[in-house]
Each structure stands twice: as structure tokens, then as C-alpha cells.
# Entry
Amino acid sequence: MVLREKLYTVAEFLAYIDQPEFEGRRLELHEGVIVEMPPSSKKNVRLEGWIITLLNNFVVPKDLGVVTTPDGGFKIDERNYLQPDVGFISHERSGGMEGVEFPVVPDLAIEVISPSESAYSVVSKARTYLVNGSKVVWAFYPEERAVDEFRLADDGGLRVNSFSVDDMLTAEDVLPGFSLSLREVFKVLG
# Structure
């Protein structure tokens, strides 16, 4: 749901949403437009939590960086402030722990897709992450028990690989040695 028809910068957005009426609401800035994200379903929340746990089990012992929750905001550029459902950002790029947003895109952005989200919205968000420096975006589809992996192609377009519940995800360029069994991930959904 679009909240206002004015184009905002990230600085204006953060000042605007720092009002009591926005407390507890999940807001993002897409191409300068403030968008309220709908509440997540129980399936999505459970899946997000499990992915965060699996990532932290790999990242924390190796002290590789920060795994973020849906409240973790990333200043993508001057007109985009996004909150991936799960993110990973290396210590070298995280910019410290002060403030309310990470100053750059996550190395890995993970979105858990709701049935109400359009394919255009998913691709647009993936493109925004990737053209601004993310290495990989994973879009998890709980209902289908499938994942689309987005990467930037050499020609600047998007390269999409689709995975099913029987596959493994890896991102050697982001988390060397990490692999994620999709069967293990989706088991939390029953």
C-alpha cells in the first residue's frame, strides 16, 4: 500500500516515518515511494525464522558478518530503503552497528514471497538489490516450496535459476562452504 504520492529520499523517508503513528509498521522506500508491507503470514514468519537460524548457525561461529531480520533496513541508494526478510552483510561492508540502517545493500538478500506479491514486484526488488551491489537474491515461495535465485548477468540483465525442495542452495561468492538443503528449510512448514 502506497502511503504518499511524493518522491522521497532515504533521509526524508527516515525522518517522515519516525513518527508515533508509524510505530510497529513495516515500511520500505521503493524508487522514492513509501510502501507499507502487509503483515506476514504464519508460514512466512516461521520460514523466515528458520532461515535466520540456519544462516546464523553458519555465520556466527565463523564471525563472517551480520544476519538481519525483517526489521533490518538497508539504504540501497538515495531513493531505495529496503528491508529484506533475511539479509547477510559481511563485517567489512556493514559499516558498524550504529544507526538505523546499513549504508549499503546486503551481500545476500532473502525475500519470503507472499501469494499477494506480484512477479513484477519480486523481480523489481531483486534488480534493485543486484544493480546496487548485492551478489545474490533468493526468493522463497512457501506455497510452492521453491526458490528463485537472482543474479546479475554479464550484460546487466537478470539471471534466474529455479530450485525445488530436492535441491541445495549455495552462494560460494558470499558464504564459502555454506549450503542450504531446501528440504531442511521447508520442513518447518509441515
